[in-house]
């Protein structure tokens, strides 16, 4: 790895980490960069998980230092997401590229519509386990299924669904999202490791940038205008994903 390559990984990693923590879609930047630097697609996919895990860990740590809680509730939401992701990964192996992209466009367009609907009436009572209804659990399974199947933009779905179902502020939803994604990504990273598809040098340099971006994103998320930034950044990311797919 040259110095220029390392600087590119750090720079793009910082931007991707910022986007991933506040919204989703950072992998649209990091995966092409890793492949441009010469990694085969599977190695790039596996190596990118190193960055996702470490940026999520950085964000979770920063959120809790800033006073965020609900670890137990987040872990409960993670279980159905992990189960769904394992099934989704298997389904992805049976699906052609054209159908794959059509499903992604449809899901992202639907997410944009949901995000732009009028804000739901937010709950003022404390978030407790009783509010994690079977419908919420099923939704987490479905998002995990999607994430295992496609992965791109999965954070958008976590934001939209939890925002609408739990009726808590988007900034609070983001705390749940990053912890769920941390748990959700660990089994996938382990699978890539077992199959020798991780390049640690590239992954750790990329992760260095993404952890910085995650730290900056937490500062924005916890600010008074955090929910506003999350909403409109998410809409912009959805538009970018759809445009990129339509233009090929």
TrEMBL record:
<feature type="transmembrane region" description="Helical">
    <location>
        <begin position="6"/>
        <end position="38"/>
    </location>
</feature>
<comment type="similarity">
    <text>Belongs to the 4-toluene sulfonate uptake permease (TSUP) (TC 2.A.102) family.</text>
</comment>
<feature type="transmembrane region" description="Helical">
    <location>
        <begin position="73"/>
        <end position="92"/>
    </location>
</feature>
<feature type="transmembrane region" description="Helical">
    <location>
        <begin position="200"/>
        <end position="218"/>
    </location>
</feature>
<keyword id="KW-1133">Transmembrane helix</keyword>
<protein>
    <recommendedName>
        <fullName>Probable membrane transporter protein</fullName>
    </recommendedName>
</protein>
<dbReference type="GO" id="GO:0005886">
    <property type="term" value="C:plasma membrane"/>
</dbReference>
<feature type="transmembrane region" description="Helical">
    <location>
        <begin position="138"/>
        <end position="163"/>
    </location>
</feature>
<keyword id="KW-0472">Membrane</keyword>
<dbReference type="InterPro" id="IPR002781">
    <property type="entry name" value="TM_pro_TauE-like"/>
</dbReference>
<feature type="transmembrane region" description="Helical">
    <location>
        <begin position="175"/>
        <end position="194"/>
    </location>
</feature>
<keyword id="KW-0813">Transport</keyword>
<dbReference type="Pfam" id="PF01925">
    <property type="entry name" value="TauE"/>
</dbReference>
<dbReference type="InterPro" id="IPR052017">
    <property type="entry name" value="TSUP"/>
</dbReference>
<keyword id="KW-0812">Transmembrane</keyword>
<feature type="transmembrane region" description="Helical">
    <location>
        <begin position="99"/>
        <end position="118"/>
    </location>
</feature>
<keyword id="KW-1003">Cell membrane</keyword>
<feature type="transmembrane region" description="Helical">
    <location>
        <begin position="230"/>
        <end position="247"/>
    </location>
</feature>
